[in-house]
Amino acid sequence: MHHDDFFECLNAQFQDALPFVAYRKPNEDRINAVFQNDDTLYDTKELSEAGFVFAPFDDASKMVLMPLDHAEVDYCDDFEGEELLNNTPTLTSSSDQKVAYIQAIEQAISTINESDLKKVVLSRPDYVSNENFEVLEVFKRLLSAYKTAFVYCWYHPKIGLWLGATPETLLKIEGQRMSTMALAGTQVYKGTTEVSWGNKEEEEQQFVTDYIVSNLEAEVDQVSVSERRTVRAGGLLHLQTQISARLGKDHTGLLHIVRALHPTPAVCGLPKAEAKTFILNHENYNREFYSGFMGELHFKKRQTRNTNRRNVENNVYATVKTVSNLYVNLRCMQVLANKVALYVGGGITKDSNPEAEWEETVSKTSTMKKVLF
What domains can be seen in the chain, in order of their start residue? Predict the structure, then answer.
């Protein structure tokens, strides 16, 4: 579909108050969309259906599904984004926000020093006015600014409107193969990925990798781990390790694997249970879908086995693989009645400096604010 028509369809669906999601996977050109036919709020308990899932941080809440049985799927391949102007809006966070966030960090550091908690990710909402907020324009700017991220715009009339550009894959499954990533450490991108990392970041990265591997080993076969590398996400750099595995013949379904991974140490902490309890008790707001996960669940992908032109008749043996592509909902915003909430956080360890952690959240939100206006 031509991109003007595509965005026109998104707009019509939005005006009709019908659920939809539009998204582009990392390093791809195609923007996909799922248009739900009615405004029913469907959920999934087992992650066994086919559709687009949107799941909250806290697994005590419902995982929302746009089921393919109740939706049309479309795409556009020809979207050319504009270059973004480098306007850095001076939008400051209020000082009471700062005081509250720093208090929570200090509380986290003392808990880490007195208990088994090693790392906890603390986050906060940062609000901006939405008076000139044009949903699809902001979506287009996100598409232009974040080529290597999973960029999405998700709407359900019974839940609300979320947009984001996340660098983190939760889980990718094709047929019997699965992969995930460990992502930790942040520094500002200054024109090169050839950078050095401190001990704190490398240690944190190793923690996260070991943690994911040990959790997965109970659910899957042959876990293998790549070399650590530096990756860029917009204006920031992260340390990343790829982890892959085979799903055994008797693997018990996606839900168990997702439970082993989510919430990841990048959004929660280590050990997971202690970190999550700390977050639910000390963050003083409800994350809802921020730091939850979302993506394609059991989509069918047709693959032609034979690429040799002369064997055209063998192409009838195309295989259909089932694929799932799930991403962690980071770098996202929620459009509320009279403001936009931007969500931002950072990993706190015993060596964290509260003031520096606050500054890091400010620099993370300023990258997102650039696309708003």
Answer: 3-84+92-172+263-304+315-369 (3.60.120.10)
